[in-house]
Amino acid sequence: MKTLAYLIGGLLGIVGIVFLIAGISWVRVQWIIIGPILVGVAFFVVYMARTKVPDQRIIQEIDLSGDVHPEEMTCNNCGGPLERDSISLREGGVFVDCPYCGTSYQIEEEPKW
């Protein structure tokens, strides 16, 4: 996408310079006005292609009703306490990466009935 923007900016710049030179040579006021406008648009296109798009983050929050006290999670393999950074969402499932024993496993919720 950036390559296409650079190409379009370069072409607009060249056409703008040609309009400017031809307008000065043949005394065409319209071309003298169009030339700098095209050069300005070319600089704008190249500038926009060079600017960095800010990173976007998606934060998902869950609002629970009532008083909720989370229980401390421990590793199924070694029994070590798990931190918040040890739990991640991958491939549509909740995975645990134990920092103590290096085990990685998926948490499966048992039915409530």
Architecture overview:
The chain has 2 domains: 2-50; 75-113, no CATH class. The mean pLDDT is 87. It has helices spanning 2-26, 29-50; strands at residues 87-90, 93-97, 104-107. A hairpin with a 6-residue loop joins strand 2 (93-97) and strand 3 (104-107). Strands 1-2-3 form a 3-stranded antiparallel beta sheet, with no helix packed on it. The chain is of the alpha+beta class. Helix 1 (2-26) runs antiparallel to helix 2 (29-50). It is 42% helix and 12% strand.
Number of domains: 2
The mean pLDDT is 87
Strand-pairing-aware structural class: alpha+beta
Give the SSE order as H and E letters: HHEEE
The multimeric state of the shown protein is single chain
Strand proportion, as a percent range, falls in 5-15%
CA-atom Rg in angstroms: 30 Å
DSSP strand tally: 3
Descriptive labels:
about 110 residues; alpha+beta; 3-stranded antiparallel sheet; about 40% helix
Secondary structure: elements and pairs:
Blueprint: H1 2-26, H2 29-50, E1 87-90, E2 93-97, E3 104-107
Antiparallel strand pairs: 1-2, 2-3
Helix pairs in contact: 1-2
Characterize this entry briefly.
By secondary structure, the chain is α+β, with helices and mostly antiparallel strands. 42% of the residues lie in helices and 12% in strands. It has two domains: 2-50; 75-113, no CATH class.
